[in-house]
Amino acid sequence: MYLTREEERLLAGEGGEALRRAMKVLLTIGEMKGAERLIPIASAQVSGVSYKTIGDAGLEFLRDLAESGARVRVPTTLNPAGVPLDSARELGFPEEFIKKQEEILRAYTSMGVIPSCTCTPYYAGNLPRYGEHIAWAESSSVIFANSVIGARTNRESAVSALAAALLGKVPEYGLHLEENRRGSFGVKIKAELKGSTDYAALGYYVGRNYEGIPVFSGASPRGEDLKALGAALATGAISMFHFAGATPGYREEKLERVEVGEAELRSVWEELNTCEDPEVVTIGCPHASLREVLDVIELNPRREVWVFTSRQVKSLLEPGIGNENIKLIADTCMVVAPLEELGIRCIGVTSAKAAFYCANLSKLRVRFDSLENLLREE
Ligand code: F3S
């Protein structure tokens, strides 16, 4: 891989140990993937934030890095943490967990990372331009950035996104290159999609059964539907999609096409549903937009519903929402918060991604259903 004089100096350790290690990480990945050079990025989104997912080993790694004086070089935002920062104790999360989580956030902020704690940085001030190169981790924000915004990022890991943030660069390979961003197969939708949960089921089906860049046609999604579709696609290996008439990079091409109809969607509902009567309904995977929060308020639920969102969206509704059953929770989500430690066993979700990870990571039982169905019951 070609390195500039400055990059060579950093690799030799002249910029300090943190930058030497960051260069080593990017160089190793770049060489493995056949990149020819490093290119500048406009922003980074770093995952590996919740104490539930990174544990003591992750905390120690971040503490060492922060103590070495490492600082990010580009605007860098953070994925959700394991607890809501303003109400963790009030909601009953374990004290030990809260303290470790606070320490993780201190390490990140001392490196100059903005503690946004959301997986929808694009709703919270970190909105890239079309065509801009970025280094984002967190599969749902990566696929949204590539497909809906038209920015360019590979699916970075927690470590490679942080290394990219410290250097302000990434290796140029994969989805940074125009030739790798074209559709690879068509998906003709042969079912009526009534809302974002149906789009999530569609994404889950395609993400679990195919690889490459799907080009969808046959429906008219709103932005939130594309968010749900992308997050579900990314539970598999897909990091970009096109949607005819809805995404900016779409070009009509002759592609081999698969059809997805009612039977395929039904198979997803059957796979993801493992309980009927959730103790709590949770919305916001990925974090809810203002419009999604308003959708919940409009249904005036009579059962408890937790809406996970960014602090920015939450602040727009700060004066109050007039329904005590709705809890607006920022900084965390139903997957990375230790909900199982609060005694929850069966959880209601509208997101296929949340359904998959609540079952597999948190060992919760799941009711995957539309918002209307989940909130209809008392
Ligand atoms: Fe975001 Fe948590 Fe879902 S990080 S995409 S709300 S699993």
What is the average of the pLDDT values? 96
Radius of gyration: 21 Å
Oligomer state of the chains in this structure: single chain
Number of helices: 13
Keywords:
14 strands; alpha/beta; binds FE3-S4 cluster; 378 residues
Short summary:
With 378 residues, this protein is α/β, with parallel strands linked by helices. It is 38% helix and 15% strand. It contains 13 helices and 14 strands.
SSE diagram, text form:
Blueprint (H helix, E strand, L loop, with lengths): L4 H7 L5 H17 L4 E3 L3 E3 L4 H17 L8 E3 L16 H16 L24 E2 L2 H11 L8 H10 L1 E3 L13 E5 L6 H14 L4 E4 L5 H11 L8 E2 L13 E4 L1 H11 L7 E9 L1 H9 L6 E5 L1 H6 L9 E5 L15 E4 L2 H9 L4 E4 L2 H6 L2
Parallel strand pairs: 2-3, 2-4, 6-7, 6-9, 7-8, 10-11, 10-13, 11-12, 13-14
Antiparallel strand pairs: 1-5
Structure characterization notes:
There is one protein chain. This protein is of the alpha/beta class. It contains 13 helices and 14 strands. It has helices spanning 5-11, 17-33, 51-67, 95-110, 139-149, 158-167, 196-209, 223-233, 262-272, 290-298, 311-316, 352-360, 371-376; strands spanning 38-40, 44-46, 76-78, 135-136, 169-171, 185-189, 214-217, 242-243, 257-260, 280-288, 305-309, 326-330, 346-349, 365-368. It is globular and about 65 Å long. The mean pLDDT is 96. The structure holds FE3-S4 cluster (F3S). The site of FE3-S4 cluster has 15 residues, from strand 10 and helix 12. FE3-S4 cluster (F3S) binds at residues 79-80, 119, 140, 231, 285-287, 308, 333, 335-336, 353-354, 357.
